[in-house]
């Protein structure tokens, strides 16, 4: 993605971490704040958020994985806050490459393989997080 660079944990700096946080975390917060008031008023709705590498981080994505930890924690906490309100929030950790052109040694999956996990979360509404490992 333009403007976003990958860095190992020891190469992570404020300069290469900040854009990751803005993209991954601030985007999630902004999106939720746009729809959450209406969902709360209706007493219904589903918010599903996705990060990769927040469960099984890999060194080449050190700054990306660090930024993914913030929305994961926030969504798990949002899930707890919304309990009993009719609004459901959950986190999906995708610990695989999506598509065919991933790095060697990293498992891959197609969107069609991953999609049922989202529907299952939405339908069951009984867990704060699901992990897709391929």
Q: What does this entry show, briefly?
A:
With 134 residues, this protein is an alpha/beta fold. The chain has helices at 14-42, 62-82, 111-124, and strands spanning 45-52, 87-94, 97-98, 108-109, 129-132. It has 3 helices and 5 strands; from the N terminus they run αβαβββαβ.
What is the helix/strand order? Answer: HEHEEEHE
Helix/strand-derived category reads: alpha/beta
Please give the alpha-carbon distance between the first and last residues. Answer: 23 Å
Strand order of the largest sheet: 1-2-5
* Helix content, binned percent: 40-55%
What about the largest sheet? 3 strands, parallel
| Coarse morphology | globular
Number of helices: 3
Cα-based radius of gyration, to the nearest Å = 16 Å
Low-pLDDT sequence parts: none
Mean pLDDT: 92
The total strand number stands at: 5
What portion of residues belong to β-strands? 15-25%
């Amino acid at each position: 993605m333009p403007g976003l660079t990958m860095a190992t944990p020891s190469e992570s700096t404020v300069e290469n971490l900040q854009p990751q946080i803005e993209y991954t975390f601030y985007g999630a917060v902004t999106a939720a704040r746009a729809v959450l008031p209406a969902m709360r008023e209706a007493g219904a709705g589903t918010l599903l958020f996705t990060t990769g590498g927040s469960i099984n981080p890999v060194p080449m994505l050190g700054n990306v994985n660090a930024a993914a930890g913030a929305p994961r924690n926030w969504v798990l906490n949002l899930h707890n806050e919304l309990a009993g309100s009719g609004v459901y929030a959950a986190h999906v950790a995708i610990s695989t490459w999506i598509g065919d052109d991933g790095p060697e040694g990293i498992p891959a999956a197609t969107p069609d393989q991953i999609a049922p996990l989202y529907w299952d979360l939405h339908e069951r509404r009984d867990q704060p997080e699901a992990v897709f490992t391929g």
